[in-house]
Amino acid sequence: MAQESPVTNQITRSDVALGAPITGFITFALLTWSGSLPETSEWKLYVTDASVSLIAALLTYLVTTVISYARFLINLFTAGFAYRMKKRSYAAILNDENTSQTAKKNAQDKLDTLVDAYTQQVENVNI
User: Fold this and answer.
1) What is the pLDDT of residues 89-108, one digit of tens each?
2) How many other CB atoms are found less than 10 A from the CB of residue 108?
3) What gap in Å lies between CA 75 and CA 120, rounded to an integer?
4) CA separation, residue 117 to residues 23, 91, 120, 125 (Å)
């Protein structure tokens, strides 16, 4: 049986790589917005290169964290769904009267292993 990767909510390399385009888009949007401000706008005083960079960095961190958390929830849901489907399959084998005792014993062993593995996987999740 293939070893499944543990479910984690930590920011991954792909999340960090996703941060560059997000930062670029946010910076572009802020600079475009600030360029359209009239000279008499009270916002004009606060929109500088440094503030645009800071806001873009903070928004990138927020967006990356949200994406990472969404990926974490999807992985957790997928692992739970796979667990329930496998458990249902093993239960069907165990409840079938035409199944041999050897097959039932193998199904019970696999079910016990599955329960232990899923319990361990859920215990290792850091939210």
Assistant:
1) 888 888 888 888 898 898 89
2) 13
3) 15
4) 39, 17, 5, 13
